[in-house]
Every structure is written in C-alpha cells, then in structure tokens.
Design goal:
alpha+beta; nine-stranded mixed beta sheet; three-stranded antiparallel beta sheet; 18 strands
Length: 398
C-alpha cells in the first residue's frame, strides 16, 4: 500500500490537490499536508498597510511579536496601535497579527467559500499576519486545525510530524512557546501555497522576506468548556424548587460520612445533566457554538423597524444585510428546522433556515421566498442589529 504523501501539487485540482472526501479521510485531524499551488496565481486582497490600519482600530484584536535574537526573547505587544508607530518599526524580526480580518474585509471573507467542504460553524476566523524579514512568533503548537495560506512574499515553515513530540512550554515568555522543538520537515512557501496542520503538531514559521500569511483556524472548544456551558444551559432551565432531597433518610451511622445513599440521591438531583436527549443537546450546542469566540458585541438600533416599514422599503429596492460579526447555524427539528443566531434560536422551515444561513444579503424576492416564521425571524434580527436594512440604491443620473 502506497504511503500517504505529505506534499502535493494542487495546480490542477485546487485548493487541496484531491477531492474533499480524500482529504478528510486521509489528512483531516490525522496528518499535516503541504499543498503547493493551492490557490494558483493568488493575489492578496489586503496589503500590509491595510492590515496596519486595521490594527489601529479600537475594535480590532491585534498583537505584535518582536523577536530579540541575541537574547532569544519574544516580546508581546497588544493593540490597538498608534499609526505613527509603524514607520519606526525595525526592518526585521517582528510580526503583526490581526484576528477576524474576514469580519472586516469582504474580499478576505470570500476565501472561506473555498473551504465549504467543512461545516461553516466549525470555522473560527481568518487571522492575517504581516512579518518583516526574520519575523516569527516562535515554535508553538495549536489545539485546533489550521490552514496557513501564503498570501504575499515567502515564509519558511518547519514542523515536527513525529510521534509524541515534546510540548512543554518555556517559562520565560508570556507566549506559549515550546521549550524544545525538533523539526522533521522544512519548506519555503511561495504565494498561493498552503500548509494544513491538524491539532497538536508543533510548528515554526519565519519570514524569508516581508510577507503576509492568512491563517484559517477552526473552532474547537475543549471538553471542559463544553461541560461548564452545558451545566449552565441546564441550570437555567431547572426550577428553583428542584433540590437535593432525602425523604428516605435513615439514621446516620456516622454523622460526618457521605454515604452511598447520599451519592445515589446526588445522582438523582443531577439527573438532568446525564439524561439529555438529542433535541436538548442540539439546542444547547446550536446556542453555544454560535456564541463561542464571538468577534465582538453587535449593537442594536436606536429604534427597531416595524414589519410594515421593512416590507415597504424592500419593495422600493432596499436590501437587508447581515452584520459581519454574526455566527449562525441551523439544525433539523422534526420536519422543520431551528435557526441558531448568536446563541438564540428561531423555528422555521428547512428551506428558510438554509437560505438565511447562506445569504448575507436579502432583497424583496429573497425575503418573500421565506416562510412566515423565517420572515418574522428577519424582523426580530433587524430589531437586534444582527441584520440591517440598507438604503434604497440610488439610480444613476444619465
């Protein structure tokens, strides 16, 4: 049986060089893959100066990592940054990283469509990094899948694809950097090349020349996060009068002992956590995953529009647009569906749920094609600022 290659050329079948089915069965959460020509002829939709401008915004999440080579020390700075700082930055050994760039730039967001073989709710964000020559954030390991697309310039990547690599962290840095890094593979990525890494693979990237790298990362909540959130979800729905109870209590043999009968009653009191059916788990997870790692707060409008006003303006040519920070997903609920948006749920038909997830913009025809529950959900979402009714497009004067 032929060995699974760690490097492929995708020029004839971008972006993976194979079918999604082959990639998912052979590589996804199993082994790394370097994809040459994942995006042949790629031209970056964002330039370094645009990224620097975004890093100056209060609402953007940005960081700078400076590598002091002589001391082998990595310095972390957090944004927002003043514009006048960037011209004075050194010519080498620093990296600017900005999270959620897909929420701010539609052209960057369009890249996500190339990964539609993955559940959209699994995709966290596209982080964009600019690195001066020699810039890096140090050897590290991520606990989620990531696709690293070289958007501009060249970057050297090293990975440790061995079994049970060392993952202890250095104690002299606030960054989670590896104390020991023993690379098994090394490549220089050109524009349009992409490196896929499953969780737990140590890696280190360093700019060969000034470069931009796009990191499409996955949402991967820990089991601990899920347990805490599930407990909160269940607790919110339990009546106050439901408590630990012991109507069958017998005289204690030792007043300080937590005996087997007490543990049994504890299991009864906690029964709601262990007896959730699929529908209850669906409602919990849909709510949780559309709130998890939210890009920011979405402000509501000063005045919620009425349904009559919305429909009248749509008929005149206005458009409804979804806020770029919004996370949403849908799940089947009997013959219908539940649409999850930013932690809340609306019941509607499957076609309406699919349409509202797929379309970032709605015109009068799109809105009219929704069922009654779907249209009411749109009105609710407009009232919360999650959707916004845009002005009627003006006709160009001849």
């Amino acid at each position: 049986m032929a060995r699974t290659p760690i490097e492929v050329d995708a020029a004839t079948l971008p972006p993976l060089g194979m079918t999604p089915e082959q990639f998912l069965s052979r590589y996804w959460q199993k082994r790394p893959l370097l994809v040459r020509n994942a995006f042949p002829g790629f031209t970056t939709p964002i330039e370094p100066e645009d990224l620097a401008g975004l890093a100056c915004e209060e609402a953007a999440l940005s960081r700078i990592v400076v590598h002091h080579r002589q001391a082998d020390r990595y310095e972390l700075r957090t944004g927002p940054f003043p514009e006048e700082m960037f011209p004075d930055m050194p010519h080498q050994d620093w990296t600017l990283l900005v999270q959620d760039v897909d929420k701010w730039d539609l052209d960057v967001a369009a890249l996500i469509q190339a990964f539609d073989f993955l559940p959209r709710w699994r995709i966290d964000d596209i982080m964009v990094s600019f690195a001066a020559p020699g810039g890096s954030v140090g050897p590290h390991v991520d606990q989620y899948d990531v696709f690293l697309l070289q958007a501009k310039g060249r970057r050297r990547w090293q990975i440790d694809a061995g079994a049970n690599p060392p993952v202890d962290f250095r104690e002299d840095s606030e960054l989670k950097l590896l104390k020991e890094f023993q690379p098994t593979h090394e490549w220089i990525l050109e524009e349009g090349d992409m490196l896929y890494l499953p969780p737990g693979v140590p890696h280190h990237g360093e700019a060969v020349d000034a470069c931009l790298t796009f990191s499409l990362g996955m949402r991967a909540p820990s089991a601990a996060e899920l347990v805490v959130e599930l407990a909160d979800h269940v607790a919110e729905r339990l009546p106050e009068e439901l408590r630990y109870a012991d109507p069958d209590l017998a005289p204690a043999r030792d007043a300080h002992e937590i005996d087997a009968a007490a543990i049994g009653r504890l299991r009864t009191a906690l029964g709601s956590l262990g007896e959730l059916d699929d529908a209850q788990l669906r409602d919990f997870f849909g709510s949780f995953i559309t709130r998890y790692r939210s890009a920011g707060q979405i402000p509501g409008p000063a005045r919620a529009p009425t349904r009559g006003d919305v429909e009248a303006r749509l008929e005149k040519g206005a458009l409804i647009a979804r806020h770029p920070f919004v996370r949403l997903a849908w799940a089947r609920d009997g013959r219908g569906a539940r649409l999850f948006v930013e932690g809340d749920a609306w019941r509607m038909g499957i076609a309406s749920a699919r349409a509202l997830c797929a379309d970032g913009r709605l015109d009068a025809g799109d809105y009219g094609a929704l069922d009654e529950d779907g249209r009411q959900a749109v009105i609710d979402l407009l009232g919360r600022g999650i959707m916004k009714l845009g002005p009627v497009p003006r006709r160009r004067q001849r």
